[in-house]
Amino acid sequence: MPPPSDIVKVAIEWPGANAQLMEIDQKKPLSSIIREVCDGWSLSGSEQFALRYADGPQLYITEQSRSEIKNGTILRLAISPARAARQLLDRIQSHGIDARLEALKELAKLSADPTFATEFISMEGIGTLARLVESGTHFGEMLAFTLTAFLELMDHGIVSWDLISLSFIKQIAGYVNQPMVDVSILQRSLAILESMVLNSHSLYHRVAQEITVGQLIGHLQVSNQEIQTYAIALINALFLKAPEDRRQEEHTNPLDQRLTEMASTLAQKHLRSIILNHVIRGNRPIKAEMAHQLYVLQVLTFNLLEERMMTKMDPSDQAQRDIIFELRRIAFDGENDPSGTEKRKAMYTKDYKMLGFTNHVNPAMDFTQTPPGMLALDNMLYLAKLHQDTYIRIVLENSSREDKHECPFGRCAIELTRMLCEILQVGELPNEGCNDYHPMFFTHDRAWEEFFCVCIQLLNKTWKEMRATAEDFNKVMQVVREQITRTLAMKPSSLDQLKGKLRGLSYSEILRLRQSERMSQDDFQSPPIIELRERIQPEILELIKQQRLNRLCEGSCFRKLGNRRRQEKFWFCRLSLNHKVLHYGDLDESPQGEVPFELLTDKIPVSDIKSVVTGKDCPHMKEKSALKQNKEVLEQAFSILYDPDENLNFVAPNKYEVSNPFYPQNKYNSEDMYS
Known about the structure:
Blueprint: E1 7-14, E2 17-25, H1 30-40, E3 49-53, E4 74-79, H2 81-91, H3 97-110, H4 114-122, H5 125-135, H6 140-154, H7 166-177, H8 183-199, H9 201-210, H10 213-220, H11 225-241, H12 262-266, H13 269-280, H14 288-302, H15 306-309, H16 318-332, H17 341-354, H18 374-386, H19 388-399, H20 409-423, H21 447-465, H22 473-489, H23 495-504, H24 507-520, H25 527-554, E5 556-561, E6 567-575, E7 581-587, E8 602-605, E9 609-614, H26 631-636, E10 637-642, E11 646-651, H27 670-674
Parallel strand pairs: 1-4
Antiparallel strand pairs: 1-2, 3-4, 5-6, 6-7, 7-8, 9-10, 10-11
Helix pairs in contact: 2-3, 2-4, 3-6, 5-6, 5-7, 6-8, 7-8, 8-9, 8-11, 10-11, 11-14, 16-18, 18-19, 18-20, 20-21, 20-22, 21-22, 21-23
């Protein structure tokens, strides 16, 4: 008889018959089990049948998946996947509309099953569905079920998306572009187009030529969040797969722009404001999938900065050098430059030092490290051009100081840009399952640059609050990083709200929060202590194990409880030196020192020990637990249970006794003691 672990007790249903209660032997072939089930209902041709789950997705059971069957599962005898696929394929091509609708409805449900999908696809079923769509004769529910089945079958990855025809793509795109279309059809059409783009490079180009931004914007203005989610998912897919050289192209009318140029459109107010007003600030809470798509859109938008972030400045490029000249001119109004070359060079060197560049002679060298590369210079120019008063104030305020507390603008701007790239993970692909989007980045067409402008002012303010010098540069940057990350965690809804929250996180507030957090948690939970503990833990655990074993080998003395609850004799128990046997025996009095093994006449092989129990679970306490005077004894009792159904009972001297290696106060269990 096979062991119980190979036997699964299930109930099996068949329409119009009483369920069979069976014990399935998992070692027997599945075909033999199906034959037994068929024999129970006098059904012939068992090879035409299969088992499916009666609940949930109702998947077919195969030799590979049968191990997942649990005791008490309800199964259902059904026609085999191949037979079901053939029948449905014939029915969806029948002339009767009602029969075809029912067949497509059943097909949409079964297509999620990989076993059925394999059979249906092998019969050219996907081609049949594609032709039904291309014919344009299906509408309403019939078309919705057709598209659902098609998408489910393709999602199994059995057939390549590259086999999809252009006419099929045009038909699906037509459903998306129609002003009035059934919601279920639109939803599935958007999902199919997204899968095409993500799974086929060639289909990306075809889809991108059929869909425009203006057409998708309409789907973002509806009240159905699922449609909005699928629309943004399609935008993200096209954005993600767009060739690098086409992401930055500009068109005169963004709404007529093809999705191959999605990146430039995302920077336009049209799409951003629609997402902000109709999705983020809509009257409905953001669901998890929508939050994920917004996060993906945010990541892909910031990834447009990667090229500039990884571009080093060419010190010999005059156009790039002119940007630095422009920064100097705006800060110091250098229109009346001295005529002499040497005088101009000396003046520029002084100005570049006042601007806070590390290399005063040739500040272009400050931008040769990537990241942040040229992105830092872009941010500085944006601040100087769009927030000129702020820029001039920061530069002049610090350049006029002579107490070594000046904040070097150039160096700070470069390091801050690098920090922001790290915090917002510029250049990294979106993480699956992450939904950490920030609403404020959808409130401005130049959200990245505006974010930098807010943070550089924060840095300047924190520098002054810390009364920092050049030696404190790294400390200041650490505080600023903490201020920014703490504020981002609050998810400010706008840049103005970001400014307000940052104002509340002054340097003194950061110190207060740090102190509060240190006091609210055990010092042993600090990162250095945790790291140290993890490093030495294996050695400590081994030391504890040896100490416990040594204590067990030394043994302990216990008092025996008599029938009249009067403490009478003593007994001693100790572990053999090879850790294989427990020796114990009675003593007339409490021993002084170690008791020789020869005096302990009884023994228990450690291999026979089943478990250690405590308190009221102990055999010698069950009849005594009702007596009040036994409460203290109850807390100190423990027993070793061993084969065959025997026990060795203990009562510790007190519940705090640490000399007793068996007592659970020492946090021992049977595995610890006898491993």
